[in-house]
Amino acid sequence: YLGPPCAVARRLKCRLRVCLCLAAQDARSPPSQKRRTDDSTSTGDLQPMPTSPPAEAQSPSAPDALFSSPPQFRHSAIPLDFDVSSPLTYGTPSSRVEGTPRSGVRGTPVRQRPDLGSVRKARQVDLHSDGPSEDVVATEQSLGQKLVIWGTDVNVASCKEKFQRFLQRFIDPLAKEDEDIGLDLNEPRYMQRLEEINMVGEPFLNVNCDHLRSFDENLYRQLICYPQEVIPTFDMAANEIFFDRYPDSILEHQIQVRPYNALKTRNMRSLNPEDIDQLITISGMVIRSSQLIPEMQEAFFKCQVCAFTTRVEIDRGRIAEPSVCKNCNTTHSMALIHNRSMFSDKQMIKLQESPEDMPAGQTPHTVALFAHNDLVDKVQPGDRVNVTGIYRAVPIRVNPRVSNVKSVYKTHIDVIHYRKTDAKRLHGVDEETEQKMFTEERVEILKELSKKPDIYERLSSALAPSIYEHEDIKK
User: Fold this and answer.
1) Domain MCM N-terminal: where (predicted)?
2) Considering the domain 271-426 in this protein, what is its CATH number?
């Protein structure tokens, strides 16, 4: 039942009036505008949304692809969006073209670093600018020297230049031949490490923080206080030097810098809120390790109407599901395709403080570690390790379906570097010094005993001689 006839007639008149208005408006529009509208409709290419970056910023082959800052700077105190991790593409989905694979330097692909978290687009501000100036025209280079990442005192250009100088010049005066086997102690240490990477093919550069502190204390302080912003800058510097020196080398992925031996080494009991988001080094014993956990890094969506596909990077643990298809403009038609999404390896590890570090009469403390990619399955339960990583604090939801969180946060450490420590070395006994404890006469006696036919019985009887019999157990 559609209602009384008068109401039906009234609705039909309204619809007819709307159709006539649209037809008149279409007739008044110029032919060029009609042709543009028809062409855009036929190709199905829509104009980018106002929130999307321009095409020049999205192009990976742009000359200014080193940083995703605007090509023209204005001398003002307005914060600028500055992707500190480009071209390593640790950034948000807006830092690269959707649907395109990550391309590296000269054929070497790029891998994200989940150990640094999701490095979002860092805002850079000019601390020395009081406002817009009409007389001074700031160039890109001069303004780049003044910009620092918002919330820090890290200048990306200066930080990268200092680290490159460190890699090219640092010679350890306290180096020992037994520690650096195969290295020339009179040549820059880390340039030889880059040569090893070229020969072996393992794209990881371990940097001793003690060396960095002796070379540049300010750079070391920035690394400890702001590791999430500084380490991607170190990666850029190391890759520039490596590929300039070895242009024909193709690695599994671009080089990743892994600092270790931070001076800020703390016991688990002394970790405080002031250490959150800072680089720390702790020691302990592994008591538990989980199975491999696949963590999604890039989600693949497909439109159920027109089969249009797009990729969305995970930003701070959240998937920004496209609400509108860019091809057919249909809302809520994108479906997640799991088997075409990109995942990374993840593992949770429980680290317990060592017995010698534990106060008498107290229960040992434990801390949760999260290892990613190549650090998965590097340690096993029972290993004593020195762990260098970033101390994190994450909120806990009261109810998974409600956005309210608890006031007490849960802490963990994102592992950047492992270093195993033998139990003997914890007490100051080295393997080489232990071998030198046997004299030559002692070695001759052991060799003579090894030639005796009843050496097996002699050894079993010498084991626990105060216990009578039990020869089978002793053997």
Assistant:
1) 160-261
2) 2.40.50.140
